């Protein structure tokens, strides 16, 4: 069904393209083609590095990926209007681990489950996806500049680096095939939308830009396979990047209830003030990508529900040029996030394991380059520090304020995360090591601290061939109420080899 919809989208764009510019002057087209082929192997330690380094290791992925982009400049224009780009992105993949370890993953259902967004083994073993397809209709004249972009695409708002989501909520995440070591855009799901971007005519020391989105394509965060069969826990939820997070759902009928009839839309305004300061304010009407869980005892079914919420926020970036220091900040308020309360409370027909609560997050970032002689004598080392604070508003009323419920809840009202990323290069940038670490110090009554560490190194063997090696590990108190604690028994070591053009 998705492939058919993509075909009709391409056909519609082509029709508009021909009709709108039938009388425009055409020149020779420019076409660019670039992409990569990559083979990735992931070795997982099943009990975490706190209990011995890679002493219970098994292969959980051997994914071979072909991805390429095609950009066409058709050289079509009519006065101040033009078509500047037609863009296509394709990605195909085959994960041979499902054949190499058929004894482990052979019971996973091949086909999609009972819900529209369920994935089966075929969906995570193979990929054949026209990920992006859009066209830019542009204006550049006395009223400023603008582009209108309909199609399947990715849009990112905010300053967050991926440690958490503050304003970057437009495209849902794809967590069906790998959780770490991917480019941010590769773990997002492109969706169909219409985007209008407009910039006012240039003014002295001030530039204003407006971004408008309308999204009729409603999708949740993608996992797979989620659908299990009651009484047969080995049938579903065995895929290597699903069982880690949702292993407690094994043996249940899992169904997704996504309000696909809803619409998402939003707007952002950005002001560039001088050469150093940029500030933005944004609003987005969001169908929550993350789910709340409702358990219906009579049928043994667990429903994943997705509500409509409003996301408000702002962010800024300021470059302190004399110090070679960039300060960034971001704040966002989500009006209705599902907050886990471990089965406290009920709704008609089932047991809700969550309450919708407003959540406020803010973050501060500092990016600095500094020459560290014992790391490299020639190039400066990049340091990025991040402090994220999360607060669950209206704690009262969710039954979480009661001592027995608060003790059982899997989240705390106030949460802090501190992270540091250090990166440098050797041999004229051909070898690039980096170390990323994040830590949640914990709070009284919520368990001790937990965190993760991610050392990695990439090697640009030639202008086309590259390789990288990385480790993702979690440490700390397993009873800590943060996501890191749930992942402590897991450590992933990944090796990539690729060819790019």
Features:
18-stranded antiparallel beta barrel; about 500 residues; Porin; single chain; mainly beta
The domain count comes to 1
Give the distance, in angstroms, between the N- and C-terminal Cα atoms: 32 Å
**What's the CATH architecture name?**
Beta Barrel
What is the number of E strands?
Answer: 24
Task: Tell me the β content.
Answer: over 45%
Q: Which descriptor suits the 3D outline? A: globular
CATH topology: Porin
What features would you describe in this structure?
A hairpin with a 4-residue loop joins strand 13 and strand 14. It contains seven helices and 24 strands. It has 501 residues and is mostly beta strands. It has an 18-stranded antiparallel barrel. A four-stranded mixed beta sheet has the order 10-14-13-17, with no helix packed on it. The protein has one domain: Porin. The relative contact order is 0.11.
List the helices and strands and how they pair.
Blueprint: H1 2-20, E1 25-26, E2 30-45, E3 57-73, E4 76-78, E5 81-95, H2 97-100, H3 102-105, H4 121-125, E6 126-141, E7 144-153, E8 191-199, E9 206-215, H5 243-246, E10 253-257, E11 264-273, E12 277-287, E13 292-296, E14 301-305, E15 308-320, E16 325-340, E17 351-352, E18 354-370, E19 381-392, H6 403-408, E20 414-423, E21 431-440, E22 450-460, E23 465-476, H7 483-486, E24 491-500
Parallel strand pairs: 10-14
Antiparallel strand pairs: 1-4, 2-3, 2-24, 3-5, 4-5, 5-6, 6-7, 7-8, 8-9, 9-11, 11-12, 12-15, 13-14, 13-17, 15-16, 16-18, 18-19, 19-20, 20-21, 21-22, 22-23, 23-24
């Amino acid at each position: 069904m998705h492939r058919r919809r993509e075909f009709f989208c391409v056909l519609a764009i082509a029709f508009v393209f021909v009709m709108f510019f039938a009388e425009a002057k055409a020149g020779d087209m420019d076409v660019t083609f670039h992409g990569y082929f990559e083979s990735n192997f992931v070795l997982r330690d099943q009990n975490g590095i706190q209990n011995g380094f890679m002493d219970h290791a098994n292969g959980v992925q051997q994914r071979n990926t072909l991805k390429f982009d095609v950009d066409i400049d058709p050289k079509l224009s009519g006065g101040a209007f033009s078509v500047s780009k037609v863009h296509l992105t394709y990605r195909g993949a085959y994960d041979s681990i499902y054949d190499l370890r058929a004894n482990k993953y052979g019971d996973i259902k091949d086909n999609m489950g009972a819900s529209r967004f369920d994935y089966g083994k075929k969906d995570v073993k193979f990929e054949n996806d026209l990920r992006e397809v859009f066209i830019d209709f542009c204006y550049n004249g006395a009223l400023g500049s603008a582009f209108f972009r309909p199609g399947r695409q990715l849009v990112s708002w905010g300053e967050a680096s991926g440690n958490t989501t503050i304003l970057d909520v437009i495209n849902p995440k794809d967590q069906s095939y790998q959780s770490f070591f991917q480019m941010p855009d590769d773990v997002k799901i492109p969706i169909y939308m219409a985007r209008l971007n407009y910039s006012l005519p240039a003014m002295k020391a001030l530039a204003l830009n407006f971004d408008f989105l309308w999204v009729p394509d409603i999708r949740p965060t993608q996992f797979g396979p989620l659908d299990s069969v009651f009484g047969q826990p080995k049938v579903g939820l065995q895929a290597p990047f699903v069982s880690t997070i949702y292993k407690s759902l094994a043996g249940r009928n899992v169904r997704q209830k996504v309000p696909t009839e809803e619409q998402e839309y939003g707007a952002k305004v950005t002001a560039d003030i001088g050469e150093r300061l940029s500030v933005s304010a944004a609003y987005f009407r969001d169908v929550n990508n993350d789910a709340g869980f409702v358990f219906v005892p009579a049928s043994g079914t667990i429903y994943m529900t997705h509500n409509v919420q409003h996301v408000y926020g702002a962010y800024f970036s300021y470059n302190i040029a004399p110090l070679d220091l960039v300060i960034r900040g971001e704040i966002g308020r989500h009006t209705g996030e599902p907050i886990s309360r471990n089965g406290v409370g009920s709704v008609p027909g089932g047991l809700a394991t969550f309450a919708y609560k407003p959540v406020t997050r803010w973050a501060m970032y500092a990016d600095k380059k500094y020459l560290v002689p014992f790391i490299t004598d020639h190039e400066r080392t990049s340091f990025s520090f991040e402090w994220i604070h999360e607060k669950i508003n209206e704690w009262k009323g969710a039954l979480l304020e009661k001592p027995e419920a608060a003790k059982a809840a899997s989240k705390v009202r106030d949460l802090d995360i501190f992270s540091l990323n250090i990166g440098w290069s050797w041999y004229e940038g051909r070898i690039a090591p980096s170390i990323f670490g994040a830590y949640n110090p914990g709070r009284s009554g919520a368990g001790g601290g937990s965190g993760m560490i991610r050392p990695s190194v990439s090697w640009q063997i030639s202008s086309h061939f590259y390789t990288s090696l990385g480790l993702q590990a979690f440490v700390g108190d397993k009873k800590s109420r943060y996501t890191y604690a749930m992942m402590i028994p897991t450590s992933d070591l990944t090796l990539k080899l690729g060819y790019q053009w």
